[in-house]
Design goal:
Number of helices: 14
Helix content: 40-55%
Mean pLDDT: 92
CATH superfamily of the largest domain: 2-enoyl-CoA Hydratase, Chain A, domain 1
Low-confidence stretches: none
CATH topology of the largest domain: 2-enoyl-CoA Hydratase, Chain A, domain 1
CATH class of the largest domain: Alpha Beta
Shape: globular
CATH architecture of the largest domain: Alpha-Beta Complex
Radius of gyration: 22 Å
Number of domains: 2
């Protein structure tokens, strides 16, 4: 059974009615095609009305949808001969980050991404996609391996943030993230990043210092989650509400459309109405096209020019305004 959010309830009711009619007519000498066509048309119109006017908070919920495709789902669809590599060679392996060499089209690449997991057991195993420092060190090891063999790096971002536990901090969480930021800025091969779900804080940035950054249409990318932002800014005696989270999401400017407008990302990859889980193959195809196009554009560039453009890309993010006044 599909999962629906509160704002999707009208769609759920129609889709359930359509399914009931299909089941009822199956195997019976009853022609309900006309009624089904009318309901399908009504459902499609309703989807367009709802999904074309999503608020930032609603997009955040879709980015977290339990049926939304994860990194390994896309790897299975767009990658050929993928070999997952494990371990950071310092402490251990972190299942919250997966990666290894593969082919996308005819191009050999190193693909790395966050993996949240499905079902309670796998989600716990993968720590809900929240990496430990060994995860970031594993990712960096794979990037350096890619650099040695002159392979472009492709990263998929989908994490609420780096794991904030005591053990992670004791093992150098902040240092691991900082090392990735510095090393990716100097990596001598093209880097392409796609935010496929949540892009949360330094946990996301540690894999996204890239030459080209794309976001899926309903993905989010922010310095903090709406819940974290609301908790810091609007502490209350009682619990925070959905309205508080919606207000925070609106202020954070975390949608793909906001970030493209601010020139933080380079493009938006479209999703079907309702989210990527509605047609994963179509979304995977669009991701593959964006990756191949970017690599073909970036690969001919001399390394020094590639690094200089990457440096300028991040240096020019943001704007400072100075207001003159009398002393």
């Amino acid at each position: 059974m599909s999962y629906y959010f509160d704002f999707e309830k009208p769609i759920e009711e129609l889709e359930l009615k359509i399914e009931e009619l299909r089941v009822f007519s199956d195997g019976r000498d009853i022609d309900l095609s006309r009624e089904l066509a009318e309901l399908e048309k009504k459902a499609e119109k309703l989807r367009k009305e709802i999904y074309s006017n999503l608020s930032p908070w609603q997009k955040t919920l879709i980015a977290r949808h339990p049926e939304r495709p994860y990194t390994l789902d896309y790897i299975n669809l767009i990658a050929r001969d993928f070999i997952e590599l494990h371990g950071d060679r310092l402490f251990g392996d972190d299942p919250a980050i997966v990666g290894g060499p593969c082919f996308i089209g005819s191009i050999p690449v190193m693909i790395i991404g966050h993996q949240k997991g499905r079902g309670t057991k796998e989600r716990i195993q993968r720590n809900f996609g929240q990496p430990h420092p060994e995860g970031y060190r594993k990712a960096l090891r794979l990037m350096r391996l890619a650099e040695r063999f002159k392979m472009p790096v492709v990263t998929f971002i989908d994490t609420p943030g780096a794991y904030p536990g005591i053990g992670a901090e004791e093992r150098g969480q902040a240092e691991a993230i900082a090392m990735n930021l510095m090393s990716m800025s100097r990596l001598r091969v093209p880097i392409v990043t796609v935010v496929i779900g949540e892009g949360g804080s330094g946990g996301a940035l540690a894999l996204s210092v890239a030459d080209r950054i794309y976001m899926l249409e309903n993905a989010v990318y922010s310095v903090i989650s709406p819940e974290g932002c609301a908790a810091i800014l609007w502490k209350k005696d009682g619990e925070l509400t959905q309205e508080d989270y919606a207000r925070a999401a609106q202020s954070l400017k975390l949608t793909a459309q906001d970030l493209l407008n601010y020139k933080i990302i380079d493009g938006i990859i479209p999703e079907p109405l309702g989210g990527a889980h509605r047609d994963i193959k179509a979304v995977a195809s669009e991701i593959e096209k964006a990756i191949i196009s970017s690599i073909q554009e970036l690969s001919p560039k001399p390394v020094n020019r590639l690094l200089e453009e990457r440096y300028k890309k991040f240096r020019k993010i943001g704007l400072f305004l100075e207001k003159g006044g009398q002393g």
